[in-house]
Design a protein that fits this description.
13% strand; alpha/beta; 267 residues; Transitional endoplasmic reticulum ATPase; binds adenosine-5'-triphosphate
Length: 267
């Protein structure tokens, strides 16, 4: 596995319809990203700097990667995805070089979104970090960010669970200067997410997703996706033992089984 994943816009489709409970966040992010990517000339005519980056913060599994991917898709931008800890750990001593290459690669496309997951690993607060290497990597990332506008239509999205661990210099104007919280979903959000992940599932009439949403407080998008998968598995197991007759339907009790397994595995 390499540290950089390049996904072509036409490869795997991710649309806004695949993301539940985050419509306000998506609208805000689209506002910031679409204009600079699709109409950079507007900014140059106005003589103002186009936004170059933003920071998404929230717990892992809440949909940050999903949003970045969907926006790339919708703007026909090349999506490049790197992971902070991977760059640091696997390319120790060469991290700066790796970063430079990634930015170079991103600048090759007419439009691109560079998504840096767990960016706090690449740009930790320099006041609290002592290592020379870490300081150099932060410095390199800042320099690369500052070079972005002159290189074309590129937008950088950083994601972190720990926004306060990110070096403040990276959060200054001209860098990742917009910050969007990606919070755990509300009950209505959970319902949207459950609907997305049961789209292709034959649901029985008693499989009331509102009830499932009501009892999954604290579940993130990734948890709900796993829950739906497990409900399907519970149904499949029954089918395998002949308890359920064909045609197969996923019932509310399958969600309950999944839920109890889920609670056990995360306790
Ligand atoms: P990480 O920081 O670990 O990368 P993340 O916040 O980027 O986490 P994603 O990778 O986007 O989370 O989510 C993982 C999976 O969970 C997605 O592929 C999707 O199946 C599901 N998921 C997460 N959030 C949502 C959501 N809001 N709506 C629908 N599915 C979601």
């Amino acid at each position: 596995k390499t540290a950089i994943t390049v996904i072509n816009p036409q490869d795997k489709k991710t649309s806004y319809h695949d993301i539940g409970g985050l419509s306000t966040e998506i609208a805000r992010i689209r506002e910031m990203v679409e204009l600079p990517l699709l109409h950079p000339e507007i900014f140059s005519r106005l003589g103002v700097d186009a936004p170059r980056g933003l920071l998404l913060y929230g717990p892992p599994g809440s949909g940050k990667t999903l949003i970045a991917r969907a926006i790339a898709q919708q703007t026909n931008a090349q999506f490049l995805n790197i992971n902070g800890p991977e760059i640091i750990q696997k390319h120790y001593g060469e991290s700066e070089e790796m970063l430079r290459k990634v930015f170079e690669e991103a600048a090759k496309y007419p439009a691109s979104i560079l998504f840096i997951d767990e960016i706090d690993a690449l740009a930790p607060n320099r006041e609290t970090v002592l290592g020379e290497l870490e300081k150099r990597v932060v410095g390199q990332l800042l320099a690369l960010m500052d070079g972005v506008t002159s290189r074309g239509r590129m937008f950088v999205m950083g994601a972190t669970n720990l926004p306060n661990n990110v070096d403040p210099a990276l959060r200054r104007p001209g860098r990742l200067d917009r910050e969007i919280p990606i919070n755990p979903p509300t009950k209505a959000g959970r319902l949207e997410i459950l609907k997305i992940h049961t789209r292709f599932m034959p649901l029985a009439a008693d499989a009331n997703l509102e009830r499932v949403a009501a009892v999954t407080h604290g579940f993130l998008g990734a948890d709900l996706a796993a829950l739906c998968r497990e409900a399907g598995m519970a149904c499949a197991r029954e089918a395998g033992t002949g308890i359920q007759q064909k045609p197969l339907f996923v019932h509310f009790n399958h969600f309950l089984t999944a839920l109890s397994d889920f609670r056990l595995s995360t306790m």
